[in-house]
Design brief:
mainly alpha
């Protein structure tokens, strides 16, 4: 018990936090591979799998809007500016109250709009039975946004205090409940894809439990606080809104991807999902882990107006992250097909599905250095309380990807989405780098 309490209240440095978060992402990735293997073996890449992947798009867009890092980017620098514990507690309670009410309303609207969205925007060319299944699963998944919005706000508070242990456990706990749901579907096939979808909802509950434990270490007392006139709240929302829009625009790219892939074929939807899952793992292990670890230190240095220290820390971190990414690109390019055969080809997921996934993965993995650099460049801008530039670059990237798919995608077929994604991500990285270079000079 004493060791557990020490982990809950421990403050981590950059290197220690990066290791803790990387281990958490690695464990989550390993469990994600197990989850994806079981999901493929149970449902292959047919209609139920397509419905499951597609159904998550609209709820996850809401989730990304409220919990995709917006409150971490906004709350961390503002909380660090508030040195009094009472002021920090007041701000957190006000944010939770306002955000909780707003997300509950948005979730209800999402449930009402899911039928139109699936039939008109997401899967217009798919048969009516698959569309209906997607609508039902999507409505079930709308339980998540409110839970994960609370998780996001509490995680931001823990990040500001450099307490990463419970955040790490929250990442790890994401996949086990989904794995249990898939196992339930194997034992009782009549439950179908609803079983893993329920596991996804329970994952949000488990995350909330862990970050709640972490907040007890900060001696925080939850209370209803409807104070929209609070000046710090306006500052948080001013910083959070562009980031929320930015990550939502970024995630909206997955809706563009899904819509285009559905026109190519049902199996393409699953191939793109699986390929991106494999490419996203090293991006999280390096970019997200290091970015989250270094962010409070960058923000703290900038709040104290020590720009030189922030600049030095940032460029060193960026070089280390890119150096770690390049060997992974080479390894996945040459050995990715073998890895897919070993890990994913089980049951209904045959070698043809593996070939499609590898073709997608090859193009996604080319963009890995860009994904990592974009993460760190955005963190640096957020630390300087600039959340508008990442929004503009994400809108530019999504618009460029849509244009490329519209004009050239039909000729590229299966690999059109990952090719367009990698290309536009490099352009976005160059634009962000130019902004950061200009700021830190």
């Amino acid at each position: 018990m004493a060791v557990w309490k020490a982990w809950v209240v421990r403050q981590f440095g950059v290197a220690d936090a990066a290791v803790v978060m990387a281990v958490a992402f690695a464990c989550s990735a390993l469990l994600g591979i197990i989850r994806q293997t079981m999901l493929g073996a149970t449902f292959s890449d047919g209609a139920e799998a397509a419905a499951y992947y597609a159904a998550a798009r609209l709820p996850e867009t809401f989730i990304t809007f409220v919990s995709g890092g917006a409150f971490t980017a906004a709350l961390v620098p503002v909380l660090l500016s508030e040195r009094e514990h009472a002021h920090q507690q007041q701000l957190l309670n006000v944010v939770l109250t306002i955000v909780g009410v707003a997300v509950a309303v948005l979730s209800l609207l999402g449930i009402l709009a899911s039928s139109w969205f699936v039939r008109t925007v997401l899967l217009p060319g798919i048969d009516a039975e698959t569309q209906q299944l997607t609508i039902h699963v999507s409505r079930l998944l709308f339980v998540q946004p409110l839970l994960l919005a609370v998780v996001s706000v509490l995680s931001a508070a823990l990040t500001a205090h450099k307490r990463f242990a419970m955040i790490a456990f929250a990442y790890v706990v994401h996949n086990p409940t989904i794995i249990i749901g898939i196992w339930v579907a194997q034992q009782w096939p009549n439950l179908g894809i609803y079983a893993p979808a329920t596991g996804l909802v329970l994952a949000a509950v488990a995350k909330l439990c862990f970050v709640w434990v972490g907040m007890r270490g900060l001696q925080w007392k939850m209370a209803w606080a409807w104070q929209p006139q609070l000046p710090q709240l306006r500052r948080v929302l001013w910083l959070a809104l562009p980031t929320a829009l930015s990550v939502t625009v970024n995630y909206a790219g997955s809706i563009v991807d899904t819509s285009f892939a559905a026109q190519v074929g049902v199996t393409t939807v699953a191939a793109i999902y699986s390929g991106w899952l494999l490419a996203d793992m090293p991006a999280r292990l390096i970019g997200s882990a290091i970015g989250q670890a270094v962010f409070p230190h960058l923000a703290d240095a900038i709040v104290q107006q020590n720009i030189r220290a922030a600049r030095l820390l940032f460029w060193r971190t960026l070089l280390v992250a890119v150096a770690l990414a390049i060997p992974i690109v080479i390894m996945l390019w040459f050995f990715g097909r073998w890895g897919i055969a070993v890990v994913l080809e089980r049951g209904a997921f045959d070698s043809a599905a593996g070939d499609r996934t590898y073709a997608v993965l090859q193009w996604y993995i080319i963009g890995l250095p860009a994904y990592i650099m974009t993460e760190l460049l955005s963190r640096m801008l957020n630390a300087m309380q600039n959340t508008h530039t990442p929004l503009l670059t994400n809108m530019m990237q999504l618009s460029a990807k849509w244009a490329i798919l519209r004009w050239f995608g039909s000729g590229w077929g299966l690999v059109a989405v990952p090719m367009a994604h990698a290309l536009t991500c490099y352009v976005e990285t160059l634009v962000l780098a130019a902004f950061v270079w200009r700021k830190v000079r």
